[in-house]
Amino acid sequence: MANLLENLNIPPCIWFEGEARRNSTVSILSGLLFFMGWWMIIDAASVYPGTVAAGYHMCGVVGTLSLVMVNSVTNAQVRGDSYDAGCLGSRGARIWLFLGFVMGFASVIAACWILFADFVGAKEASQWPGVALFMQNALIFVSSLVFKFGRTEDTY
Questions:
Q1: Is the whole model's pTM more than 0.90, yes or no?
Q2: Where are the domains of the chain?
C-alpha cells in the first residue's frame, strides 16, 4: 500500500508559491483570528448590555498579554542559538515562554469556567455572551500558536 502513490508525479503549481509568502500568510491568518476573537466579545457586549460583566473582559486581556509574551521570544532564543546575554540567557527566554503559555491556558480555562458557571445554567439569559467570551479566548490562543509555530524564520 505504501508504494501505491510512489510514482505519481504532480506538477508544481506555478501561479502560487506559498513557501516564499509563508510568513506573511501566517501573520495575516493570526491577525484575522485575533480580530475575530475581539469582535465576538465586542458584539456580545453591545447586543446584550449588562450581561458581560467588566471582570469577564480580564480573560481577553490576559489572553492578549499571553499572545504578546509568547511571540516576543524567537525560537532561536529558546534553543539558545542567538541569545546568551542577560542575567538568565536562554533559560530566561524559556521561562518567559512558559509563563506566556500558562497565561494563555489560564485565560481559556477561566473563560470556559465563566461560560458554564454563569451562562449555560441560566435560563433567563442568553448564552451567546458566554460563548463569545470562550470563543474570544480560544481564538486568541489559537492565533498565538499559529503565529509562533507557523513562521519559517525567526525574524520579525
A1: no
A2: 25-150
The H or E element that residue 112 is part of is helix 90-114
DSSP 116: I
Q: Where are the alpha helices (DSSP H) in 48-89?
A: 57-71, 75-79
The span from the CA of 60 to the CA of 69, in Å, is 14
How many other CB atoms are found less than 10 A from the CB of residue 120?
Answer: 10
- Tens of pLDDT, residues 22-60: 788 888 999 999 999 999 999 999 999 888 888 999 999
pLDDT in tens, 117-133: 888 887 777 889 999 99
Q: Give the C-alpha distances (Å, rounded to integers) separating 77 from 48, 83, 123.
A: 44, 5, 50
